[in-house]
Amino acid sequence: MRIAFLGLGRMGMPMARHLLEAGYDLTVYNRTGSRARELGAQGARVGDSPAVAARDAEILVTMLADDRAVEQTVLGAEGALTTLPEGSAHMSMSTIGTALSRRLEREHRAAGQGYVAAPVFGRPEAAASGKLWVLAAGAPEAVERCRPLMRAVGQGVLELGEEPAAANLVKVAGNFLLSSMIEGLSEAFALVRKNGIAPERFLEIVNGHLFRSPVYESYGRLMVSRAFEPAGFRLRLGLKDTRLVLAAADESEVPMPAASVVRDRYLTGVARGLGELDWAALGRIAAEDAGL
C-alpha cells in the first residue's frame, strides 16, 4: 500500500518510522527537509512538497502541529488535495478543531476521497514505542482501510462513529482534562512548598493513597524534578488545544469556566517566554506566582 506521510515532528517521525518498518511503501514530506531526508536514508521516498508526496498515495497521513499547518499542507496552493487521487483516503492524526475537521470531510467527499479523523493520546515516548491510543471516526469503509496503519503506530483503536469531528472533540476534551490535572497539581505543589512540605512527599501521599494514577505520577514527577526540557508536548500547544476546546464549547453553548482559567495560565506562560517548555511548566508558573 502506498502511503504519504506529512509532518515529521517529535510525534510524526517515530510514527512514520513504524510504518516504514511495517513494510509500507512510504513517501514523506516535512517542512524541515533534513527530517524527511533522515527517513529517506532508511528507505522512504522524499517529496519536495505536500502535492508531490501525495501524488500516488492510497492513504494520506497527516501529523501536523495545528489547524493552520493542516490547512496549508492539505488545502493550500501546493497542498496534498491538489494531487491526491480519487478513491484514496486521508487519515488526519493531528489535534485540530472540530470546524476544520468538518471542512476536511466536505473537501475530501467532494473530491471522491475518504476522510478519517484519527488523533492520538500519548507523548513522544509512546509514539516511539508504538503505544499510542488512536481515536478513530469516519465512514466505516474508510476506517477499516486505515485500521492497519493505526495498529502499526498504536496499542489500540478507540472508535467514535461515522462523524469525523467526534474524534477531534474527544481529543481536545481529553487534553483539557490533562491540562486541568496539571494545573491542579501545580497549585497544590506551590501550596505545600510554601509551607515547607516537599512536593515529592506530597505526590507520594496523594498518588499512592488517593489517586493511584500513572498520569498523575508521570506529570507529577516532571514537575517535582522540573524536567521541562526537552518538551514532550510544548506549553504553546497546550494553549492551542485549550483554545480549541473553548471554541467547541462556545459552539455547543457549554460553559467551561475551568478551561478559561487553564487557557489564561498557558497564555501567561507564553507571554513569559516559556512556550517551548513542556506543558508541565504550568508548575513553574504557579510556583513563581507564589513567590517560590
List keywords for this structure.
292 residues, alpha/beta, Rossmann fold, N-(1-d-carboxylethyl)-l-norvaline Dehydrogenase, domain 2, 9-stranded mixed sheet, globular
Q: How is the topology of this model organized?
A:
Blueprint: E1 2-6, H1 12-21, E2 25-29, H2 33-40, E3 45-46, H3 50-54, E4 59-62, H4 67-75, E5 89-92, H5 98-110, E6 114-117, E7 120-121, H6 124-128, E8 132-138, H7 140-153, E9 154-159, H8 165-194, H9 199-211, H10 214-225, H11 235-252, H12 257-271, H13 282-289
Parallel strand pairs: 1-2, 1-4, 2-3, 4-5, 5-6, 8-9
Antiparallel strand pairs: 6-8, 7-8
Describe this structure in words.
This protein is of the alpha/beta class and 292 residues long. The chain folds into 2 domains: 2-163, Rossmann fold (3-Layer(aba) Sandwich), CATH 3.40.50; 168-289, N-(1-d-carboxylethyl)-l-norvaline Dehydrogenase, domain 2, CATH 1.10.1040.10. Helix content is 55%, strand content 13%. It has 13 helices and 9 strands. The protein has helices at 12-21, 33-40, 50-54, 67-75, 98-110, 124-128, 140-153, 165-194, 199-211, 214-225, 235-252, 257-271, 282-289, and strands spanning 2-6, 25-29, 45-46, 59-62, 89-92, 114-117, 120-121, 132-138, 154-159. Strands 1, 2, 3, 4, 5, 6, 7, 8 and 9 form a 9-stranded mixed beta sheet that branches. β5, α5 and β6 (114-117) form a beta-alpha-beta unit. α8 crosses α10, α8 (165-194) packs parallel to α13 and α11 packs antiparallel against α12 (257-271). The longest helix is centred in the middle third of the chain and has 30 residues, at 165-194. The chain starts with a strand and ends with a helix.
